[in-house]
Amino acid sequence: MTEQLFPRSLLYNIEPIGIETGLVESYSSYLIRVAYEHNITVGHLINKIVIPKMNKDYLERSTIYGGNSFYEGAKTINGFTDNTKNLIKVMELLTSREDLAYLTLYKLKGIIPLRNLLKNSLSWCPDCLKNWMDDEKIIYYPLIWYLKSVKVCFAHKRYLLEICSSCNKKIDILRRNMVPGHCPNCLELLIKDIFREEPGVQEMRWHTFVYQNTETLLGMSNSQLDFIGSQERVFKQLNLINEDLFSGDIANFAKFTSIPKTTLRDWLKRKSSPTFNSLLLVCYKLNIKLSDFLLQNNTKNVKITYGVKKEYVNKEKNYRKPLDVVAIENSLKELLVCDTPISMTAAAKIIGRDKRVLYSNFPDYCKGISKRYSEYIEEKSSHRIQLLKEEINSAFYSLINKGINPSSGKIEKYLNKNGLLREKILQDHWRGLLTQSNFSSGEGEVLFNDEFK
Ligand SMILES: [Zn+2]
Ligand SMILES: [Zn+2]
Fold first, then answer.
1. pLDDT digit string (tens) for 45-83?
2. Distance (Å) from CA 131 to ligand 1 centroid
3. pTM of the prediction?
4. CATH of span 230-311
């Protein structure tokens, strides 16, 4: 064998975590880890190493790998778009691996539609991350956390977080600067959890079902997936259930599963396809596992328990939980004094109730939280202005010491902050410096001979 058969990979051959298990690593997590292991940023990995390997035709066709739009497009990177496919090919080449497609939902392509399948931002279990850190295990983000239907960590019986507890911001799926286990916005560890909300018993039943069935699906073997084949299998199974269990009575089937009749009819006629969440809901209502639904050829194992309480309604927004006044009040009290002040939007998200509902029931707490947050933001911004003013001062005098005209352009260049002095308050500050230093013109062009320029 010659050496060429084994081209040296440009990147270390880093092993993905949990392949063919329900806790398989996501592809975006893998990219973050590869960058981290090479001591480079995700931005460097993508722009300097991956993109140059993309085929020319592809790059001409799409300009997405230039600016921010790459990171915008990264929302579906763990799915099964052409972009994902291309990126996988290149990374496989670079790392000499052949299994990176397993880190995406690629194997479900054709079986489950992409519509409403993936979350738009990162969600994570702070307890899982903390445990891995404590045990000195590799920090990664499992693929299952990226599915829109998955809201809880099964191991910790808790909701996944979607907002960083340190800066109250959402986290993009992929950013230029990302370190495993850290928030790219504030750089804090993602193990903080200022307010822990426990799911109710009924909700947890549904969320557990979703989690376990998703885990099974992600861990399915190739032969099982080959057997399922395509979406046609889903349509067939729905029709089989309709005939066998509901004697073709769509109204009954619809009523039982809480799926609107017209929607269900469209599925049965293959006019539209159920989203992953709808499919889970149908299985939940019928009391069957999703894997059985997809893999079994008869309805023998489906034991419909008629009279199942309608505790779960499809659309969350239609789902009006009674207000647990005491619990909400306690949460608001805690949020009013939490370490980093948060906005009412974030508070409403954490509590899981509409902001308006909270305002109308607990106006004082809400106003308090909101006021505290605005004061905090104001203080933060005046702190920022203060720091920038100090930087401008030092640039201003350094330039003068070097005999350079401290014009706005020169200062911005010196500080490497383009457009800085376009901000009114900073511009005024700079003009003040000019006046103080006896420059007669606001443009700072006087007093300097050509030789100093
Ligand atoms: Zn967990
Ligand atoms: Zn943060």
1. 988 888 888 765 555 444 444 555 666 778 889 998 888
2. 8
3. 0.65
4. 1.10.260
